[in-house]
């Protein structure tokens, strides 16, 4: 083998057949998400165009994240994760198929609300289980690459392809749109049938007498006693708050400051999505060259600067550049920090660590949306972006700078897991150290 061959292998690692199976299933389920998240509001607006009714649908769909995020983590650690992911897709497919029969007889608002809640519960389980399952499928040194490849179709299908497809399907008929979403989730479930987890992994081997409350306490205690988790989760909570506050005001910024209308606003969102896709390609490559916490901290700082730039932009080009960069920095934060948590948590606690992570990042979003509206009302839309962008940058430094890369290995339990990696918490894959194998 030539000297260049190992470098080529490191640059393009083979993630394996099991990952390809999971990725293909994820593509199908994300396509279903992209259709249904746009479809349900369109169906509500068609029969009940009142703002409170539409807002209520979103609230009902997001409510399971507050109610079931932590219990979903316990389930992910108690039972085989592949089966839980499969069942969540089956439930979504069945719910949409049942809705087809109901809508054949006419539109029903209670059915739409019930459907939104059921889909939200299933999504809560799926979004908790999938990242907890990934360390069973790929080696630790390839987690950033694997997460990046899973994020890319999520952005493309949820934010770019899904909404226009849902609009076209609704134009043909509500039942066809519902049936398409159901078929996509069913395909995602079928693709999981052939996925074998590593060494038959089935989550935690807990005591038979352990209650869900005891399991919840154990997972939360694991997080709270480790600075790397508490501080990165606090940063995630801050990012979720800033993201939702600014995103809720983005349409007003586009209309008032940039003079855009519906088409221009849609194109601005597309530019942001393109930035996120670029970030899914760039983040794993940065992770091979930068310590994890350095990349995470500066991604948040630069994202805060991008929000400030977006708020101060007075032309479309400047705004497009700012929102594109923010998409890049968002993924440069999400991918390494998610990979860090996957490395840091022992196999029996993966689900609970992921559930606490989701609760922190998603739980602050309703608060952020309300904060954005209140701040814009009392000051201005520009102030929302500039002030909260500054808060994000300052918060990133305050929360993450005190963490020391070399000392974090001591907080990570030394437990057996999947194929080990040469990557340490504070080193790149090209420069192994003697401090362990990851965060």
TrEMBL record:
Main location, first listed in the record: membrane
Domain (Major facilitator superfamily (MFS) profile): residue spans on this chain: 1-407
Membrane among keywords: yes
InterPro entries for this protein: MFS_dom, MFS_trans_sf, TM_effector
Superkingdom per UniProt: Bacteria
Record carries keyword Membrane: yes
Locations listed in the record: Cell membrane
Topology versus the membrane: Multi-pass membrane protein
Name of the protein: MFS transporter
Pfam families: MFS_3 (PF05977)
Disordered: region residues: 410-439
Biased composition (Polar residues): 426-439
Comp. bias (Basic and acidic residues): 411-423
TM region(s), chain numbering: 52-75, 96-119, 165-198, 262-283, 290-310, 316-338, 359-376, 382-403
Keywords: Cell membrane, Membrane, Transmembrane, Transmembrane helix, Transport
């Amino acid at each position: 083998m030539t000297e260049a061959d190992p470098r080529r292998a490191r640059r393009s690692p083979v993630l394996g057949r099991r990952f390809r199976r999971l990725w293909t299933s994820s593509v199908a389920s994300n396509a279903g998400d992209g259709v249904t998240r746009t479809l349900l509001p369109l169906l509500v607006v068609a029969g009940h165009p009142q703002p409170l009714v539409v807002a209520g649908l979103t609230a009902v769909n997001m409510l399971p994240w507050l109610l079931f995020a932590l219990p979903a983590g316990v389930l992910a650690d108690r039972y085989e994760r592949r089966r839980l992911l499969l069942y969540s897709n089956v439930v979504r497919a069945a719910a949409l198929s049942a809705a087809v029969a109901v809508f054949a007889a006419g539109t029903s608002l209670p059915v739409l609300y019930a459907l939104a809640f059921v889909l939200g519960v299933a999504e809560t389980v799926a979004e908790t289980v999938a990242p907890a399952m990934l360390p069973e499928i790929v080696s630790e040194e390839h987690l950033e690459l694997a997460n990046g490849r899973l994020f890319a179709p999520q952005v493309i299908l949820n934010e770019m392809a899904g909404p226009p497809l849902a609009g076209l399907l609704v134009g043909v008929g509500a039942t066809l749109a519902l049936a398409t979403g159901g078929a996509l989730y069913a395909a995602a479930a079928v693709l999981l049938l052939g996925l074998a987890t590593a060494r038959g992994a089935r989550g935690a081997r807990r005591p038979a007498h352990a209650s869900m409350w005891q399991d919840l306490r154990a997972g939360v205690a694991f997080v709270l006693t480790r600075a790397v988790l508490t501080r990165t989760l606090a940063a995630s909570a801050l990012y979720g708050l800033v993201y939702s506050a600014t995103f809720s005001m983005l349409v007003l910024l586009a209309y008032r400051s940039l003079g855009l209308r519906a088409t221009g606003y849609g194109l601005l969102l597309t530019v942001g999505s393109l930035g996120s896709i670029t970030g899914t390609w760039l983040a794993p490559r940065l992770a091979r060259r930068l310590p994890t916490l350095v990349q995470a901290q500066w991604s948040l700082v630069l994202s805060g600067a991008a929000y400030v730039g977006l708020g101060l932009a007075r032309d479309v080009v400047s705004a497009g550049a700012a929102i594109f960069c923010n998409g890049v920095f968002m993924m440069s934060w999400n991918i390494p920090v998610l990979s860090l948590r996957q490395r840091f948590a022992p196999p029996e606690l993966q689900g609970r660590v992921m559930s606490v992570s989701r609760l922190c990042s998603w739980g602050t979003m309703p608060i952020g949306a309300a904060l954005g509206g209140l701040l814009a009302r009392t000051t201005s839309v520009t102030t929302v972006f500039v002030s909260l962008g500054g808060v994000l940058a300052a918060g990133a430094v305050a929360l993450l700078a005190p963490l020391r890369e070399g000392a974090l290995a001591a907080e990570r339990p030394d437990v057996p897991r999947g194929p080990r990696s040469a990557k340490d918490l504070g080193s790149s894959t090209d420069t192994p150290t003697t401090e362990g194998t990851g965060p």
